[in-house]
Amino acid sequence: MTEHALAAPNDREFKLFQQLILQRLGIHVPEQKKTLVSNRLWKRLQARNVHRFADYYDLINRPEEQRELTQALELITTNETYFFREPRHFDFMREQFLPAKRNQSQLRIWSAACSSGEEIYSIAMLLADQRGNGWELLGSDVNQTMLDKARQAIYIDDRARHIPAQYRQRFCRKGTGPYAGHLRVNPELRQKIQLRRIQLHEAFPDIGRFDLVFLRNVMIYFDDNTRADVVRRVTEVLNPGGYLFVGHAESLHGLRVDLKQVMPAIYQRRS
Ligand SMILES: C[S@@+](CC[C@H](N)C(=O)[O-])C[C@H]1O[C@@H](n2cnc3c(N)ncnc32)[C@H](O)[C@@H]1O
Predict the structure, then answer these.
(1) Which helix (H) or strand (E) holds 212?
(2) 3-76 is classed in which CATH architecture?
(3) Ligand 1 binding pocket includes 119 (Cβ within 6 Å)
(4) pTM of whole model > 0.90?
């Protein structure tokens, strides 16, 4: 038997982590994901020289182990993202949303689970190109490490291949020396965006109202109640007529909210 197999969580241990993750992240981890969770946490057990998941659970619940708890939770979130992901949303912005808002002096947009920043900079590039000024962009995530990456805005070239060449030239700089093979988003765009840690499953801080919210590829991790609650509260921060973009694999079907669907994965607040 390998060392790893010895440390696999038993049912009671897995339930403890399941509850902790639900409570702290609003994320429901089904039984089938047990191996995934234990594989992700395994390196922390090793780093802390702990051999059983129950002991690691006790450790991260100590008040002086907040950092360790944060690290553990950050290993649980799935942060996969890329530039101009789900391009139909960006087409809709360019072809319908932005032309309709031409006479509105200020636009407010929220990327509500922005991960390492690719989503928010995609939006920023499109806004800078199509609108110039007159926009505010808030990016948020539960994962502070991802927000730090978003703030840095340094990406390996391969991850930037979905940025249109013309945008890459205009809004990014090529790295040199130790940053060869990377690019960095220009300071003008970096300064335009605001990043902060917001936990979607908890009451939002005072963030104002938005004309458009990107809530993409995060609801899939929530259980039904959390999903319904998050969508209801996100709808409340939309201006009347404001839009909500969700991931194309996500659906608001069955949720009682004041939204009408205008296209796949695009909803609009009614009143
Ligand atoms: C798969 S990424 C999606 C990134 C981007 N929206 C996209 O579609 O490419 C999911 C993000 O949701 C964040 N997340 C998970 N649970 C969250 C919560 N309760 N509150 C805020 N963000 C959360 C994760 O940290 C992760 O960065």
Answers:
(1) strand 210-215
(2) Orthogonal Bundle (1.10)
(3) yes
(4) yes
